[in-house]
Specification:
flat
Length: 233
């Protein structure tokens, strides 16, 4: 892929992921408004916060196409990290009474754990590719076990805040997938970077300007708030 094609693909993914983020944050914004935040400001803050994380990932995946088998180390890493993250979230919820600090801590630990699990998954995938028979299916088995363990650990949390967090995470992954594979539109490709920068700046600068908004988002939608919880404490 030439540099021009890479810029166009990346810009298109940025635009699609940014626009998609505006839609998926609606449930989280409604939850935050029930927690005391203004609906419009909560939506804007979450839009910018989600786009800050989601759009660059989608852009990187789209530029990297066609993906090598090692690209699937990320979903495998997510599956393997799901169980430990469920345990950590439950411990953090009972041990931390300062919700913004707890949300920021969870986001940082989750990022580090997923990065480590993804690196380990890449080694497993590379090792299994040189094997025959059942050993070649080891990544699939580990993914299934990781998802099953995560689902088992999440069962006691159904009906609590964790169910909403799982929904937010699933929607974010869906936006990345759509932005990575949807057919390219030249107009979106040209506007992608500018749109992303405007949305992120508006979300962090305007949407998160009120302390009550930041507190409500950290309490009701820490997954989509993500890195913004550190950038605007």
């Amino acid at each position: 892929m030439s540099a021009t094609d890479a810029r166009a693909s990346g810009g298109h993914a940025l635009a699609v992921a940014t626009l998609g983020s505006a839609v998926i944050v609606v449930p989280a914004a409604l939850r935050a408004s029930a927690g005391g935040a203004g609906l419009a400001m909560a939506w804007l803050a979450l839009w910018g916060s989600a786009a800050l994380m989601i759009a660059p990932v989608a852009g990187a995946y789209r530029v990297a196409r066609p993906l090598s088998p090692l690209a699937f180390s990320l979903p495998l890493g997510l599956a393997l990290a799901l169980g430990p993250l469920m345990v950590f979230a439950r411990v953090l919820k009972t041990a931390t009474h300062h919700r913004p600090l707890g949300a920021a801590t969870f986001a940082l630990v989750a990022a580090l754990l997923i990065l480590g699990a993804t690196a380990g998954s890449a080694r497993v995938i590379d090792w299994s590719r040189a094997r025959d028979g059942a050993l070649s299916k080891l990544p699939h088995v580990l993914a299934a076990l990781g998802l099953a363990l995560g689902a088992l650990l999440a069962m006691p949390a159904l009906g609590s805040e964790l169910r909403a967090a799982m929904l937010d995470g699933a929607l974010a992954v869906a936006v990345v997938a759509v932005a990575t594979w949807v057919p390219e539109r030249p107009a979106l490709a040209r506007a992608g970077l500018v749109l992303w920068l405007v949305v992120v700046a508006s979300g962090l600068g305007l949407g998160l300007s009120a302390p009550e908004t930041r507190t409500a988002l950290a309490d009701r939608s820490p997954v989509l708030l993500g890195l913004s919880g550190w950038l605007r404490p």
